[in-house]
Amino acid sequence: MHCGCAFVPPVVSPRLPFETKISVSKLRASSRQLPKTQIRINPSDDLTIDGPEKSPETRIALPSHVNSITSTSNPFVKHCLKLRQSSSYRHTHGSVLVVGAIPIREVCMFQANKQRITTEIECLLLHEEAQIPQGLESLSTRIVRVTSLVMKKLSGVQSTESVEAIALMRIPHSFTDLKDDDDEDTVTTDCKKWFPSAHRVLVLDSIQDPGNLGTLIRSAMAFNWDGAFLLPGCCDPFNEKALRASRGASFQLPIVSGNWSHLKLLENELQMKLLAGHPATTKPVSSKLSLAFAQSLAEKPLCLILGSEGLGLSEQSRKVCELVSIPMAGEFESLNVSVAGGIFLFMLQSCSGS
């Protein structure tokens, strides 16, 4: 594969002024009138959630008295399932489903230790007979018990024995989506707000495999890079497979989703050098990755661009970047993009720890 680099009874919520079953149309009308309130759903209501709500401030939540769910047809379960399956639904509601105690714990530890803020967990779902996983006992968050069938449906895995917990979390403030500022002639966003520091930024050019994208984000976090910039064509970093591969790094590393106009703004404002990983067998390649090459760029702010698994670097990337290859003794055209990316990220990491 060519990677482009070398390398209970129903209870009516007090917020709703009526006592009948809620239709989809009435619910949406209510959400328009109260755009910053939570929509409370009775577990017995026959409500099908068939599309994203218009207001991103609208949340769908269980009534406060509900502490267990036994049916996979529960509207809240349907809501959570759609969060796991649909990128547009996730970003409309600003929520994401995180499966597994380990990534949940890693996100909580990072946010507590580094950012000194309370983890934005809306709800922690546990198996009805399970203990609270180690490391999550001190969380002051709502816990809802669910059956094995519900856990299986929400986790998306065949065996739920290894799934101790599922968390409904808010998409972190460290994620920035620039889709509303995409006119090349009117880009006015202050790019200095995207990353707390921008000495080393990983740029992903149409990386569509969520496993590769998650692994690259995790590697960028491990090697102290300052953030990731996702060009058009990349998969959602909060996709379930990307989250699993990143082990919670998508909640830790600043991530910006934008286009070439935004990247050009970042380059110009911060005087960043653009490098791109490219196979040595594909001409032209201007440099080879080495210790001396990395040391020559130690003080220079840079963006490293990695291309897609199938098509490699886009024409734009090849045009504006210095192309760099990884020397290989074996007769291989290229490495998997996450493997090659890991090598680049390690070799080009900031020695100053900035």
TrEMBL record:
Keyword entries, A-Z: Methyltransferase, Transferase
GO MF term (any one): RNA binding
All residue ranges annotated as the tRNA/rRNA methyltransferase SpoU type domain in the record: 201-346
GO biological process terms, semicolon-separated: methylation; RNA processing
InterPro entries: Alpha/beta_knot_MTases (IPR029028), Ribosomal_eL30-like_sf (IPR029064), rRNA_Methyltransferase (IPR051259), SpoU_MeTrfase (IPR001537), tRNA_m1G_MTases_N (IPR029026)
SUPFAM superfamilies cross-referenced by the UniProt entry: alpha/beta knot, L30e-like
Protein name according to UniProt: tRNA/rRNA methyltransferase SpoU type domain-containing protein
